[in-house]
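User: Hey, my collaborator sent me this sequence without any context and asked if I could get a structure. I don't really work with proteins. Can you help?
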Amino acid sequence: MKTFLDRIAEPELIIIDGGTGTEMEKRGAKMESRGWSASSSITQPDLLRQIHKDYIDVGAEVIITNTYACSKQVMEECGIGEQFEEANRLSAKIACEVRDTHEAAHQVWVAGSMSPDTFGADRLSEKVLQDNFDQQAAILAKNGVDFFMLEMLWDVEITSIMIEAVKKTGLPVILGFTYRLEKEHKRSTLAKGGGFGALLPHLDLSQVPMITIMHSLIDAIPVGLSDLKANWSGPTGVYAHYGVFQMPNWVFNDMITPEAYADEADNWIKAGASLIGGCCGIGPAHIEEISRRFR
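Assistant: No problem. I've predicted the 3D structure and written it out in structure-token form, which is a compact way to encode the shape of the chain:
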């Protein structure tokens, strides 16, 4: 069996899944008013299991745990802090069970998702955040994830805290940065107005085999990829979102078609991205079209 590092070293495109939290919501899972999908693995485990299977069936080689909103600080903000360990353990357990038992035409890996998103709550001290992310990373690693995907990153301080947490597990980590354009459509809002050149030199990238742009509007991807390529020589990936978040729900109005999303993905691949998938609002039909067209 290959490791995911082995897979990254191969020239063929890596296809990952689409949004998990938004797909849970779309299929009826209840969202937390102050933490979105934080409790959905506990309340709807069978639904989560089916979503992972659906993504694998349409070609996803990587499924991401439903733990984007399961940091300790978010769950405490929701008033369900006592469910922190269970939510992360169960999310990893379900994904890994699907990886190990669901029949697929290709090997599947599980990525453990962690995010600094606070859903509007105040940011905690560095010491508290380090302890919280240490605990989350340890739970996900203990329950079988193959590597980590740190998602919706944008600044040096909290990215460094999260990298330090996953380093303690010994597993590889892929970084996922959110890239938003300023009005001039020339620079990002990463690193307090700078781009990747103002951010990456300050991070320990020794266990980082790939950097992605994720949870970003499609219009921002070309500029973001160009900026990333100018400041990072390793493999890159893209998984964009579509729609709008209005706490506590994702709004699915006027969604992009699978064909149109695959057209955009074609441009990202031509620009050098070697991993493609989707984030919020992008579902199995979009991943199926990408797999059909590019696998």
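In plain terms: The chain is about 40% helix and 15% strand. You can pass these tokens on to your collaborator as they are.
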